[in-house]
Amino acid sequence: WLAFADCYRGRTHSQPPQSLHGQLLFREMFYVLGACVQNWDKVDGNSMCKAIPWGEDEALIQAWVEGRTGYPFIDALMRQLRTTGFMHHLGRHAV
């Protein structure tokens, strides 16, 4: 971290969260959460995770795949994925 900070000092760069500095902070935050939150890698017993009773309704799943959920942000991401085969890594956190 200190070597990175020395390299970064006095240079023009983007700001967190887009910068490498921000990405390292994000990584460290998840490392700490993984070490401190019981059952971090599971839904059950994880105080940071909201258990959602997902159904198996094929029509709703197809609407999600096609970007027709009614949630504009989710729909845009799913349409981007369907059209281009790509989705930004931050978008993947949402869908």
Structure description:
The structure is a single chain. This protein is mainly α and 95 residues long. The chain has 5 helices and no strands. The chain has helices spanning 2-8, 20-36, 58-66, 72-84, 89-94. The radius of gyration is 18 Å and the shape is flat.
Main sheet properties: none
* Straight-line N-to-C gap: 32 Å
Assembly state = single chain
> Radius of gyration, Cα only, in angstroms?
18 Å
Proportion of residues in extended strands: under 5%
Write the layout of secondary structure elements.
Layout: H1 2-8, H2 20-36, H3 58-66, H4 72-84, H5 89-94
In short:
Helix content is 55%, strand content 0%. With 95 residues, it is mainly alpha-helical.
Looking at this protein, list some descriptive labels.
95 residues; flat; 5 helices; mainly alpha
